[in-house]
Amino acid sequence: MLDQTNVFGTVELITPKEDADLVRSNAVANVSAVLFDSFKIDLQPGQDCLSESKLYSFRIPIQIPEEKSVIGYMQTLGFGVQQSTGARVVIVADLAGTTNVLEFPYGRNPDEPLTPLLFRRFFSVQGLDLATQDGMGLEVPPPYEASLMISVQRRQFPVRHLNPLKGIG
């Protein structure tokens, strides 16, 4: 029988705190979702910079039944990238101790359609370093913490770029 205990608590945005109203979350049983309403970078023509980055970090309290332990988290990152030809996009997802880098290099063919909504799955092992012959995992897991960063670079000033990150679940 599947345990339907709510494992995840309420999401706390660590940084930037002033954007807390742009983050939504939902948790049911052992699944939690964090959605970003406006996680984007838009380098407009005429701006006096060739690169920009944006970072969000958040925490979710974890509570598991006494007889259980956490061996890891399966995470699905959903995102869309709209990238002009002269722009490069890098997404760094540090998810519960596992770092993942997704790169969209310079040189997109302008005749190709824009990248649709994409999904990438990651697994972060918890407690492997504490494993014994009796088992592995964390009986009292720390809060789930994650940081998501988008970095955009362009080679010249008249390039326009937009990159919304949709969420992680």
Strand order of the largest sheet: 1-5-10-7-8
- Please state the average pLDDT score: 80
Distance between the termini: 23 Å
Q: What is the β-strand count?
A: 12
Described by the principal axes of the CA atoms, the overall outline is elongated
Write up this protein.
The protein is built from no helices and twelve strands. The protein is mostly beta strands and 169 residues long. The strands form three sheets. Strands 1-5-10-7-8 form a five-stranded antiparallel β-sheet, with no helix packed on it. The relative contact order is 0.29.
Task: Give the SSE layout.
Layout (H helix, E strand, L loop, with lengths): L11 E4 L7 E6 L2 E6 L5 E2 L7 E10 L11 E8 L7 E9 L2 E7 L13 E8 L18 E11 L6 E2 L2 E4 L1
Antiparallel strand pairs: 1-5, 2-3, 3-12, 4-11, 5-10, 6-9, 6-12, 7-8, 7-10
Brief rundown of the structure:
By secondary structure, the chain is an all-beta fold. The chain has no helices and twelve strands.
What descriptors fit this protein?
five-stranded antiparallel sheet; mainly beta; 169 residues; 0% helix; elongated; single chain
